[in-house]
Amino acid sequence: MLTIGVDTGGTFTDFIYVVNGRTGTYKTLSTPRNPAEAVLKGLAHIAGNAARPLGVVHGSTVATNAILERKGVRTALVTNAHFTDVIEIGRQNRSRLYDLAYRRTPHIVPPDLRFGAPGRVASTGREIEPFDEDAARAVVEAVKQSGAQSVAVCFLFSFLDPAHEKRMGEMLADLGLPVSLSHEILSEFREFERTSTTVVNAYVSPIMTRYLTDLAAGMGDGGLRVMQSNGGSISARTAMRESVRTILSGPAGGAVGALSIGREAGFDKLITFDMGGTSTDVSLMDGDLPLTFESAIAGYPVKVPMIDIHTVGAGGGSIASPDPGGSLAVGPESAGADPGPICYGRGGERVTVTDANLFLGRIVPERFLGGGMRLDVDGARRGVERLAGQLGLSPEELAEGVLAVAGANMERAIRVISVEKGFDPREFTLFAFGGAGGLHCAQLARLLGMTRVLVPANPGILSAQGMLLADVVKDYSQTVMLGEDADAAGLTPLFADLEAQAAAELEAEGVPNERMVHERLLDMRYAGQSFEITVPFVPDMREAFESLHEHRYGHRNAAKPVEVVNVRLRSRGRQDGPAPIRRKPGTPTLPDNAVVGVQRAVFDSASHDAAIIDRDALRPNNRFTGPAIVTEYTSTLVIPPKVTATVDPWSNLILETS
Fold this sequence. Notes:
Strand content: 25-35%
Structural class: alpha+beta
Number of domains: 4
Low-confidence stretches: none
Helix content: 25-40%
Strand order of the largest sheet: 19-14-13-22-23-34-33-30
Mean pLDDT: 92
């Protein structure tokens, strides 16, 4: 069996593969117009002519791009009569509060594709208006005439009694259209969020189904699994049906890989910094993966479990340009893979972060992508000089300014997930990866006052590596709305039912019973609050809730009643990913073959001789001080002056910035 992790990014598609216990890597430019093309090209390169079964775990941006670019299918919504505009009214929040001329972007389900059906279930789960088969048939005919290509069905309180919703779904399925039922996608209260999540699923699932079907056909005899936003994987068949769970699958792979490697290296308090060609993803891990149940994609609430990741439009391909006031702006527009930065020589004409790094001597052109990709150094220089002239700066000032602006964008992103949530980033280790993460991590750590940076081996393909490490994960939830009298004994049967469902679904995905692990959780709040926090299910539920509430918000209220809003079950099927290799220690002195050259590089407006170091030649305990440029196949690591780097037993580079 040849096991392969594949991460499709905006600029590169990354591969890591394991065969007979040995690991290899591969990168190729992404093909945004047809993402499967780059994936199949990489799989063919890795497998060669060997007739062996493939096991692929894939993180894809297909669902993400479909919603961001509004390129999903024509989607209809069927809900209760008189409630068809719930998705339009929402929570009545204005994204631009003081813009008197603000006009919202039209919803992905326009008014003429919203249909109301008679029948009603009360908030207690009791039927108060029967389902009308004749009226439902008229709705089905209207959906048929509308030209819809997919349908979302969301009835009030269907999470308590889904009978009406199921029957409506059965009738719509006779049209041959994919149908998403809200009680299957999100069995929780809050109809707006449940409707929105179901609509997004219906909007992107046909696109994802087409993509995965083509990919599976191109793979031939092989198993295909898909990464979820929650840090686990699911079968391709499940991903086709519940595509909303894959929207942040690529970044989730990086988070899983970072947590695994960080734990092995002895660091459990991490801030991950994943800088690719198009964007930067950051996340804070205080001992475990941070999950959130309140997310929005392109302004649409998506209430499925996701790793809490904050994304900004600052990547290696982010374009530098004058803003309307004549100042320098960087991003969020990206050159992507086509045409890419100027230095890629593929027709790009606008200066990017990568071009600025190359101009400042922080990239070694002969060793970029292992020497497999030629860079147009002169083209990048001309582009930097041209933009510098427009802004009245010297080329060096312009290039350093590009990196400073990009760095400020990334610093703000990390403050959002740390300082704004009560965490001090100085108490964490910055875990840097992605194709461009190593170019900026030392600068970013200094901006944040962080003294330690961990850069793993093969950082440019860590997201793909995380996919091979990911367990099979299933998340379940059920709204219960219980007051102060709720107790552990009363909730246990609910968890038992969810665990039985989870065990059956994990078994269907090939997970044996002895490798299943179930984690019981509760969403709790003080009476009167409009938000919940998730705590472990323990005998003293109140203390678990109040302890976390006090840690997060600085106070507790012993006199206030508490409520149990939702029960949650997180079930996983443990998988055996590639095991880390602990290497024999060497000495602090670099091996003779480690330094392969010297290159002039600019740091803080001064030119330095930076040692060019081949990372593959480094050994545990090796120690050196910048300025240096560490090159490897998947990434480049810049070590500024006065920053010290040490190789640990697992081949990670630990940078000390103080």
